[in-house]
C-alpha cells in the first residue's frame, strides 16, 4: 500500500493516495482491535484503541471492510512482531490518519476529512491532549469553511469517468475486457484517448473505435487491437438520489455508471424529430467504489434497456424534475446551481423540450401505448410543480440585477 501510494503521489493522484492512507489506517486499526481484545484489561487505558477495528471506517469508504481481519485471512495469525511494531501502534494509527487528512485536503475531499477527524479526536480526548484538540478544531473550522465555499461556488471538479473496452490479441490476457477509468477533474475525451494510445503502444498500435455501439468482434481485424472509450456518468436510482443531497455525495462511493447510445430505426444515430429518437441505456456496475486504491475498476455487470421515443422523453423529464427537487430541498439553497438547473428546464431560448413532448405525444394522432401517455402526463405535472417551486425559491434568492433573467425564466 505504501508503494502504491508513492506511485499515485508521483502522478499527482492525491485522491487515490489518500485512499492508500485510509486503507493502511484501517488495517492498523483492525490489528490493534484484535490485540486489545486479546490482552483485555491488561492494556493501559491511555493506549487502548477506541475504534471497532476497520468497521469504524465504513462511513469514510465502502471499500474499507476489505481490510477487516476476517476478510483478509481468517485463519492465518498475524506475526506478533508486526503487530507490535511502531507502525502497528496507536501513534502509528494517528500518524496515518493525519497523513490521510493532508492528502484528502489536497484532493478537495473536505467532507471525508471531517469523517476522519471523528476517529482522531477521541484519541486526543482519551489522552487529555488539549493542544492537539485545539489544533484539530482549528483545522476542522477551515475544513468546514472550505465545504461552505465549494458548495456556494460549485468550484470543485471531483473527477471524470470513462468506460474503456479492450479488444484484440494484445488484451487477451487482461482479467477483464471492460473497465471504468477515473480521470482527474474535467478530463476531455480527446485527452484520455491520447493518453491511452500512448500507454498501449502509440499511434498504429491500437485503433480507437468511433462510437459506443455494441462491438461485433467478428467484424474486427484479428491482427489489430482496439479501444472503445465512452464518457459515463454516475448512476443513482430515485431512492438512492434522496440520500445523496450534495454534489460531494453524488461524487463519492460510486459503483454504478450510465451512458446512452442514441439511434433511430432508419439506421442513423441522431434525428431532429423527438418522435423518432430511440436510446439504448446502459448501466455498468464496477467491482469496488470510487475513489479507490486504483484509478480503474473492472465492470462486473451490465444491463441494457432500449428506450422508445416516449420513454426517452419521460426519462428526460423525470431526471430534470429530480434535479429541480434536489435544489429546492437543499438545506442551504445555492442560487448559482438553482439557476443553472432552471435555465436548462424552463428557459424557452435553450429548452423547448417539454412543449415538444406535448406536441408529439399528447395529440389524438399519437397511437402509442396509453400507459406511456399517462406516464408522460404525470411526469409533466410533476415537472411543472417542481419548476414552480424552483422559481418561487429563486425569486427569494436573487438581487435586483437578476430580475430580468428571472422574468425570462417565468415566461418560459
Structure characterization notes:
It contains 14 helices and 7 strands. It has helices at 2-10, 14-39, 69-72, 80-83, 90-106, 110-127, 130-153, 189-199, 238-241, 309-328, 335-346, 353-361, 370-397, 403-411; strands at 160-167, 178-183, 207-208, 226-234, 254-263, 278-290, 296-307. Strands 1-2-7-6-5-4 form a 6-stranded antiparallel barrel. The protein is globular and about 80 Å long. The mean pLDDT is 88.
Tell me the layout of helices and strands.
Blueprint: H1 2-10, H2 14-39, H3 69-72, H4 80-83, H5 90-106, H6 110-127, H7 130-153, E1 160-167, E2 178-183, H8 189-199, E3 207-208, E4 226-234, H9 238-241, E5 254-263, E6 278-290, E7 296-307, H10 309-328, H11 335-346, H12 353-361, H13 370-397, H14 403-411
Helix pairs in contact: 1-2, 2-5, 5-6, 6-7, 10-11, 10-13, 11-13
In short:
The chain is an alpha+beta fold and 412 residues long.
SS class: alpha+beta
What is the global morphology? globular
> Count of DSSP E strands?
7
Q: How are the strands of the largest sheet arranged?
A: 1-2-7-6-5-4
C-alpha Rg (nearest Å):
26 Å
Helix segment count? 14
- Biggest pleated-sheet summary: 6 strands, antiparallel, barrel
Could you give the order of the helices and strands?
HHHHHHHEEHEEHEEEHHHHH
